[in-house]
Queue: 2 jobs
Job 1
Amino acid sequence: MANLESAVEFIQRDIAELKTDLKEMRGDISSIRTTDLRILFRAMISVAFELGALMVKGFGWI
């Protein structure tokens, strides 16, 4: 019976460690996602400006 109780304690400790690790990973993923969104947004804005400049040059507006 003691072996079973110690096995359960080990399992509970392992589950607690896994929960902690998952919380840390969620924070890391969230920060990566925010950084990726900023980079993507900057790229979209720069492409829009470049296409606008190309249109201005192509149509001879300036």
Job 2
Amino acid sequence: MTCLSSLARKWGDGLAQFSTTGAALDIGNAIESLREPGTKVVVFATSYGTFLGNRYLNLFPGQADAAVFGGICPATGCSIRHDRSTDLVAQETFRVCSTDPFCRSKLSADPWGKLEEIYQRVRRGHCNDLYGRDTEYFLSALLDAALGERTLVPVALATAYRIDRCSPADVSAVMNLARVMMPWAFPVTSRDGISAYLYENIVESEFWDGITPDQLRYEYFDYLVSPGYGFSMADQHEAWPWPLYSTPSELKRWAPVSTPMLLVNGTLDLPTPIADLQGIEAAFPGPTQTVVRVPNEGHGAILEDCPLSIVRAFVENPSIRPNISCLSAMEAIDLRGSSSLSRQVFGTNDLWENAGQSAAPAFLADTPTDPGLLRAIDRAREGLKHRW
């Protein structure tokens, strides 16, 4: 807090210079200064960087030759509505289950309805051995930790299945998963190396359009899979001591550019839900502007093999609409899960069943190696914070 106060005293209202607009001006001026004649400039941005990239395009509409965005924040600001985002991705995940015969055999022909039933039972005391009176919150937080990663889709679904059954072996397996994926609950977390004050300065000033702290808090009650992060976000917003700055509305719109654009988002993206991108095709209707929805992938969708091959083709020749046919192979997803993944998350040989076990698993979870699991663990170790 000493550093926070010291910066406020030093800069005062000048803190507003440390904004998305300020960063976008820096990017445009740097390109202008460093660009050599005849050099092609392609702007590549992911997550919050897409919000910054769109601001840059608003300010320098003719400078770049092309732009690639992945894990896209809306032009009005990255979403702080984490409870809503979690529920949206949970609904899509359980919808995927409804299309798979194996998954339907475990969670019924209506998996989302089954999850609603599980929550109702938990509220009445079912499976309280997990987390006592806070088992409902525990379930939402655990699902939130697993959602948004392709390889962890079966883990999220099997977690609901195990909590529904709630045998002693299931309780042990789910607690094993919690120790792997929710270290903050035990607690062992660490912040990453971002500039926390710059980060909060932008979040608190630019991402609260159309919602109040109380509205964010009470969204917890509007959704099924709702980990309740809106409470801490609202408290933090109200306690933020620096002056909030404003951004002109014309800079909080999709940039009206004809620049070739490739816009990539996963259908399971939790930090930047695809539902928040309604109207993006209308905003970028040009013949060289392409929106790519990546099936069953999360926030890092753009870095997977198929989307990355689309990016490479686009960067090589932005004037040609890229071939996106490889996406069709990503529609299929294995919901059974492997014994290796099960050992990493549950400490059991089978993701869904206990194979005769009636008590705790005979061994601890294997060292995590699954890429999606490793990403989820990294996020969890940062503690509860925004993910873009």
